[in-house]
Amino acid sequence: MILVIAEQQHGKLNRASWEAIAAAQQMGSDVKVVVAGSDADAGAAAKELAAADVKEVVALGHDALGAYTADGFVQALAAFVGAESPAHVVLPHTYQTRDFAPRLAARLDRAMITDCTAVKAGGPSTGSGQAGAFAFTRPMFQGKVAADVVLDGPAPHFATFQIGAFRADAVKKGSAPVRSAAAAVDASQIRQKAEEPFREAKQAVDLSQAERIVSVGRGIKGQEHIQIAQQLAEALGAEVAASRPICDAGWLPMERQIGSSGQTVAPKLYVALGISGAIQHVVGMKGARTIVAINKDADAPIFEIADYGIVGDLFEIVPAMVAALKG
Fold first, then answer.
1. According to the model, what pLDDT value does residue 202 have?
2. Does domain 2-189 have CATH number 3.50.50.60?
3. Which CATH class is domain 207-326?
4. Would the pLDDT of 246 be above 70?
């Protein structure tokens, strides 16, 4: 059995959870999903997850899980995973997962692989494993190498999947039964004080949840030209993002950075303005469904992954696009 740990906040499902389910469905048909939180929040998210073709959706509820803490989630999920005894535990590679999942795997003394982009059946035998194990693909050295990793040791094996590695709309739909379960949590053992998630600025945004993104690179030339991207983003109903040099220069806040040292995104539409396409940036946005690149350099690497490419001056092309969209 493959267990997917979905993620919700205040009853709203993180859409990366659907991508994790798609990954699990590729691994096998015996899939369960669990979502933790307060009774109300976990229940609301579980009802939404019931639209997936899985064996069961479990709403793992407890008052102490109403506000996220790593201590609380590790307690609850360690007990649940131990009782369910899955072969694999699959999670989306989100900020929250990065916080608690390594501790959860360590609590259970099980192997874990993170930030995977693919999974393949029929991996080689391991020292203590069985033949036919899964091989998990993950980028290394800032995306320059893709390694196939087979996890050793007893089940369950933990794996997190990079946002955009699987498409949310690829989930096989069905009508799964929903079960409520009381989480095993000792609130006195929770050492952290729950607070609101960190925000660098009031306008902070989780770009991984954006459906449309307009991103700028060195080709924008100066901070005063950022408004061109903002105008296009407004016309498209999109968020503004950037490559690392733009954020390093302070032209946009670091929370807007896309790439290996920033956020990983998978929007329906990604418009790259003046971005050359260095591998460090590409690994953060290659999962976008449709990529549109505008660059005056016809040999820019970004055109190798773009679905639509325009070779030209963005200072002429973007205003024309804005006019057409608003017209």
1. 45
2. no
3. alpha beta
4. yes
